[in-house]
Amino acid sequence: MASSPDSSEPTPSPSNSTQAEKPPIEPIRLPTVEEIKGQDIWNNCAVRSVVSGVMGGGLGLFMGLFLGALDNPLMQEEMSAKQQFIYTAKQMGRRSFSSAKTFAVMGVIFSAAECVAEKARAKHDTTNTVVAGCVTGGALSAKGGPKAACMGCAGFATFSVLIEKFLDRHD
Amino acid sequence: MASNSAPPMLDKEQIMGMMEKEMEYRVEMFNKLTQTCFDKCIEKRHKESELNMGENSCIDRCVSKYWQVTNLVGQLLGSNRPPM
């Protein structure tokens, strides 16, 4: 935590000030080296992006499960109920795995780009989110050529800014 | 601080006096450093209680530059004894 500037309590009411009701004032305590190191773990770009990737993978897993369950088999009339169940389960597994991979990669790239941008600029802004969104969108749609990369960049950047504003207002 | 051409310290009081001055100087520098870097790096609207990464790296750079400036100015003041 940042060092506390002063530890004095606000003055009590003058009506009943007979006995000291204030808690004892503690001396200013600077953080220890262990505390600083413990907080510094979260400042490391690699750690942050890995954690983001894992969270993205988990999210993708659930989304893939959900979307895979909605997918109906093609030959629905000819299969029995058990075959349909097995088919749906396999479909869910396949889709959740691929979705988890995509989301994990997206999370890693976005988090790494935002971390690097914020460290380089030494400012906490929405510009970091825009840059990170552009890099992620461009990287994900780079296979379609430069025009697709530009569209992906703009689209993902807008999406990230909207999500960030939504999350901030919620707090 | 200027390089001391050390005259022989005769009594304890001189040493204590110098240590006191040194301590005061260090405390003053710490306070000014903290105040300057806080004013420069941290936004006025505190949106959260933890330092985020941008502020952290800003404070790192601010302290490093302040320290270098202090050393440099100290050296310049110490070496150029005759007034410019």
From TrEMBL, chain A:
Main subcellular localisation? mitochondrion
List localization entries.
Mitochondrion inner membrane
Membrane topology category: Multi-pass membrane protein
Biological process (GO) annotations held by this record are: protein insertion into mitochondrial inner membrane
Which keywords appear in this protein's UniProt record, sorted alphabetically?
A: Membrane, Mitochondrion, Mitochondrion inner membrane, Transmembrane, Transmembrane helix
Q: Among its keywords, does the record have Transmembrane?
A: yes
Tell me where the transmembrane regions lie: 50-70
Spell out the residue ranges making up region: Disordered: 1-26
Q: What GO MF terms are annotated?
A: mitochondrion targeting sequence binding; protein transmembrane transporter activity
Instruction: Return the GO cellular component terms, semicolon-separated.
Output: TIM22 mitochondrial import inner membrane insertion complex
Which residues lie in Low complexity bias regions?
A: 1-17
- Family annotation (InterPro entries): TIM22
Key word Transferase present: no
UniProt xrefs under Pfam families: Tim17
Identify its protein family: Belongs to the Tim17/Tim22/Tim23 family.
Q: Write down what this protein is called.
A: Mitochondrial import inner membrane translocase subunit TIM22
TrEMBL record, chain B:
* An example Gene Ontology biological process: protein insertion into mitochondrial inner membrane
Q: What membrane topology does the UniProt entry give?
A: Peripheral membrane protein
- Keyword match Transport: yes
Keywords annotated in UniProt: Chaperone, Disulfide bond, Membrane, Metal-binding, Mitochondrion, Mitochondrion inner membrane, Protein transport, Translocation, Transport, Zinc
**Cellular location of this protein?**
Mitochondrion inner membrane
User: What range(s) does the Tim10-like domain occupy?
Assistant: 18-77
Primary residence: mitochondrion
SUPFAM superfamilies referenced in this protein's UniProt entry, alphabetically: Tim10-like
User: Could you give a GO molecular-function term held by this entry?
Assistant: metal ion binding
What residue range is the signal peptide?
none
GO terms under cellular component: mitochondrial inner membrane
Q: What is said about the domains?
A: The twin CX3C motif contains 4 conserved Cys residues that form 2 disulfide bonds in the mitochondrial intermembrane space.
What does the record give as the function of this protein? Mitochondrial intermembrane chaperone that participates in the import and insertion of some multi-pass transmembrane proteins into the mitochondrial inner membrane. Also required for the transfer of beta-barrel precursors from the TOM complex to the sorting and assembly machinery (SAM complex) of the outer membrane. Acts as a chaperone-like protein that protects the hydrophobic precursors from aggregation and guide them through the mitochondrial intermembrane space.
Q: Which family does it belong to?
A: Belongs to the small Tim family.
What does the annotation say about its assembly with partners? Heterohexamer.
Q: What is this protein called?
A: Mitochondrial import inner membrane translocase subunit
Q: Which organism is it from?
A: Stephania japonica
Q: What is the lineage of its organism?
A: Eukaryota, Viridiplantae, Streptophyta, Embryophyta, Tracheophyta
